[in-house]
Amino acid sequence: MIELIPQTQADREGLNPMLVQSVSPYLNPAHVLSPPRDWLEAMVQGDIPWPLFRLRYKNMLWKRFRRDPAPFYRILEASEGHRKLYLSCHCLTSVCHREIARDFLTLLRASPDYRRWREERPSLWALPFHPAGLVEHPMARA
Fold it and tell me: Can you count the helices (H) and strands (E) in the chain?
């Protein structure tokens, strides 16, 4: 399940950083879902209307996906079933690119290509322990 959350709320609620992916071009410009910073600035300044930004951003996501689908599929895998994944950002407008990103990921999740990818590779979630357990093992504090 993919949920949208403002970065300030994620910080305030102390959400597990492994469950929150910042798609802000300011905090995480290398994220596969982060748009170019200048596009957001142009939209905020009124130089690019939301419908044009939306179209450009969707096209950018498709190009990135066609070049390398694995990062998108890993996001989907991390949010399968009951597992929540939060997309966060600092957008200061009434609309945010996270909504477009979530819609894009939802579309990919329904594709036969994603299902095939999931079947062809072993899942980290099939391990007898959650990979997050590697980050802070109780014995590491002793």
Answer: 6, 3
pTM above 0.85, yes or no: no
Helix residue ranges per DSSP H, the chain: 7-13, 37-44, 50-67, 70-78, 97-109, 112-120
More confident residue, 8 or 39: 39
Domain boundaries, the chain: 2-141
CB 12 within 8 A of CB 80: no
d(CA 83, CA 2): 9
d(CA 63, CA 121): 23
Selection from 1, 2, 10 nearest residue 100 by Cα? 2
Residue 26 phi/psi, 5° resolution? -85, -40
130 vs 121: CA distance, rounded Å: 17
State which amino acid sits at residue 117.
Answer: W
